[in-house]
Amino acid sequence: MFFKKKSSEQPEKKEQSTKDMPPQGRLGKDINENIKIFKDIFKNDDTLVIREFENSAKDSIKLCCLYFDGMVNTKVLNDDVIRPAMYNSTIGIDDEVITLLQEKVIFSNDAKKSSEIAILIESMLYGDTILIAHGSSDGLILNTKGWLTRSITEPEAEKVERGPREGFNEAILVNLSLLRRKIKTPNLKFEFKTIGVQTNTKVCVCYIDGIVNKSVLKEVNDRLEKINIDGILDSGYITEMIKDEPFSPIKTVGSTERPDVVAAKLLEGRVAVIVDGTPMALTVPHLFVEYFQTNDDYYVNYIFSSINRILRILGAFISISIPAVYLAFVTYHQELMPTSLLLSVTSARQGVPVPTIVEEILILLAFELLREASLRMPSNIGSALSIVGALVLGQAAVEAKLVSAPMVIVAALTGITGLMIIKLKGATILVRLILLFLSSIVGMYGYVFGMVGLLIYLCSIRSFGIPIIQGLSPSTPSDLQDVGIRVPWFNMRYRPKFLSPDNPIRNGSKGDKR
Amino acid sequence: MRKIAFTLIPIILSNMFFLTGCWNYREVDNLAIVAGIAIDKNKATNKYLLTSEILKISSGKDGKIESEKLESDGDTIFDAIRNTIKMSGQKLYWSHAHIVVISKDIAKEGITPILDFLDRQPEPRLNLNVLVSKAETAKEVLMKKTVAGEITSFSIDKIIDASKATAKLPFERLYNIINDYSSEGKSMSLPTVSVIKNMDKELLDVSGTALFNKDKLVGFLSDIETKPFLYAKDELKGGLVCFKVTTDVGDTLVTLEVTKNKSKIKPAYVNGKIVINIDVNTDATIVEIDSAEDLLDDKGIETIKYFAQKNIEVDIEDIIKKVQSEYDTDVFGFGKLVMESMPSHWREVKDDWDNYFKDLDVNVKSKVNIASSSDIKTPIKVGD
């Protein structure tokens, strides 16, 4: 249904896009004609400001500033553009008027000439001011960008115990400056692209020349080129458009709000894609182990971070396994449980009206409902939710014999471990349900076959040409240095080889050839 | 070594998931969990009489676990088990059964049917404890309360586990018993249970050994006789050695606690005869000296060792003699050792092993190492 609709819209869209093409043509010499061109293009747009003035020369020339209200820094515009231009008394009518203004009058740090209407409009839409003069067919693009941005704060979703507290915000240039401040090398490259027929969103591909895996870089550029969409409001749009396995719950494109994370990934040879208007930067390729790596792993003591990371891996494993294993034990393999455990489970199950599988699905559903509800709930009524969740669903349900107490423990364990790795959440829920279903029909066999299937599936996924479990299988000690155990920095001599085939050595003694 | 461990552990762990046994959907609350059974035989009808202890689990916060006993009969054991459904309404679930008590009478007739049933069925575990009842019937045993807990079968299991510290009970689980049953040159020996009177209450006493020849009961060893029996089989895990030490000053009783024991049992061929050499190597600590005299100097320790070794040697020789003369069944497994280390000689004697065993020469040598004297170095002195 969804696909059908999409394909039937396709031809219509193509037609539309030709209509939406930016206006062609160049400016003429007559300023009034030129102003009219802009007025026509931005008909019914009342934020367009047209400021006409003249300079103080004897045969004064007519000048005009065009910009969008709210997009520019008016102080810069007043003091450094309009004031010097008005006070100027030397420039008369001349073909070279714009060049003279650019070279001798205007104080702006960035002033470019262009006569192409399309380029002028694009700059205007990006916060620049256009200065046109009578008698010249060139416009001057002046950098007066000055809209309000959010300040640089620590991302709520990626808080760290130790490490830099800055996060990306919605302005792409601010984000790039944060990256530039971390990696001060001429090899750090930023390549801009514009994506989105209507939104014309700036997208920047970042990489470190000499470290980056060239085939991945080429693949990223190719895939970005192929995107045809009317608007990009978040990097999530791009993620879905360039992903390897579009229908898979497993991510093949990483995302983060932290510049230090992006910098670290660039240093390992990955490519980052930063999108204007969103604090979420994308990094590719995204390997499976990256789910379990967090940035403060690298900032705190390696023993502590290794323990934490192993806990995270264990948590993910428990989260998908516990419901299925519990079900298999309780309904198929009672002989596998210690006698005392069997007795306490039996005692708790006495009088529960529904079969174990129904009980289990109900309580897992209840947990997911609570989780979703708490996510969308204003924080000031959040405490009500925890009361309802803990008391009504936990205690009261057990006391009323609707569910058994071990089942509540299973659900709680599943829920908590499931939230340990928030980025893996969607996949966890799906895998958990599949394993639960399999183990409900054939017990432990189902669980085992499900796990084997999961492993095969993970082996089959690639992210930009690199298998997402690369490094785990086949593995060498240097591939495993950053998987379960994060080795100390002085021992982390190599980059992951498949990420940076040309420049694998990360550290060595100073005399080493790099 | 480490490499082997690293490859073995994952294989074992992964097998844990594959070797899960039969699968069969059943809810835990619908199980009639059997804790243990007692098997008797009705002499009049020649039917098996089965007493099963079934767990009755009540819900609620206290979650009390009690047991209920059911009696049923049948032509075969499995028939008797299925006949319990008439009363319980549920199939019996066997995987958590801990004990099987066999009556003296059945043991004398032969326990092949019972072992076949337990080995053939998938549910009973192979680490089940099989005991022989010294009381009149096996049912009697299961009906008694014990000090160790509410559920008789589980208490018996607990007592058997704890008996390692006393060495008054052979540690025979179902898998050993079946191994012994089917192996040449070794007869079965099962633990026994009897009903005793203690503080005017009838209680269970789990100790002693029942000796079998083929599958038939031939006699019992008492709890005291069981210890040297375990020495001779190299199955001793603990226990005490109490003996009299004679010194210049007088006699005194000394008690050692065995911390580790290794009996090397080696058959040898000497002068056309098979001889069994038993080297008993015992590590022990002194736990009690009933004398104010200081025995803990070098000479004293040597004296203690001497008497301890003598004591152990005499005990073992006595028990072997007793088994040879009275019961004539190779419960020590000497025949099996001969078969393993001297197969050619075994072929000569194997058809007549029972007679050969009767006159088998056994040399016992004991070596006791005293590791420590517990917390004190000098004895407490009587003040003036």
Structure description:
The complex is a heterodimer of chains A (514) and B (384). Chain A is α+β, with helices and mostly antiparallel strands. Chain A folds into three domains: 20-142, no CATH class; 172-286, no CATH class; 302-463, no CATH class. Chain A has 16 helices and twelve strands. Chain A has helices at 2-19, 31-41, 74-87, 97-105, 117-125, 172-182, 214-226, 235-242, 259-267, 302-331, 339-349, 356-376, 382-399, 405-420, 425-442, 444-460; strands at 48-54, 62-68, 111-114, 129-133, 139-142, 188-195, 201-208, 254-256, 271-275, 281-284, 462-463, 466-467. In chain A, strands 1-2-4-5-3 form a five-stranded antiparallel sheet, sandwiched between helices. A five-stranded antiparallel sheet of chain A has the order 6-7-9-10-8, sandwiched between helices. In chain A, strand 11 (462-463) and strand 12 form a beta hairpin. Chain A is elongated, with a radius of gyration of 30 Å. In chain A, 33% of the residues are buried. With 384 residues, chain B is an alpha/beta fold. Chain B has two domains: 28-221; 231-372, 2-Layer Sandwich (GMP Synthetase, Chain A, domain 3), CATH 3.30.300.210. Chain B has 13 helices and 13 strands. Chain B has helices spanning 2-18, 77-82, 85-88, 104-109, 112-120, 138-143, 152-162, 174-182, 223-233, 298-327, 334-341, 343-349, 353-358; strands at 32-42, 47-57, 65-74, 92-93, 99-102, 129-133, 189-198, 201-213, 216-221, 240-246, 251-270, 273-289, 361-372. In chain B, strands 1, 2, 3, 4, 5, 6, 7, 8 and 9 form a nine-stranded mixed sheet that branches. In chain B, a hairpin with a 4-residue loop joins strand 1 (32-42) and strand 2. In chain B, helix 11 (334-341) crosses helix 12 (343-349). The N and C termini of chain B lie far apart (62 Å). The model of chain B has no long low-confidence stretch (mean pLDDT 85). Chain A binds chain B through residues 330-336, 339, 342-352, 355-356, 401, 442-445, 447-448, and chain B through 17-18, 20-21, 23-29, 31, 33, 55, 57-59, 63, 65, 93, 95-96, 98, 123, 125, 154.
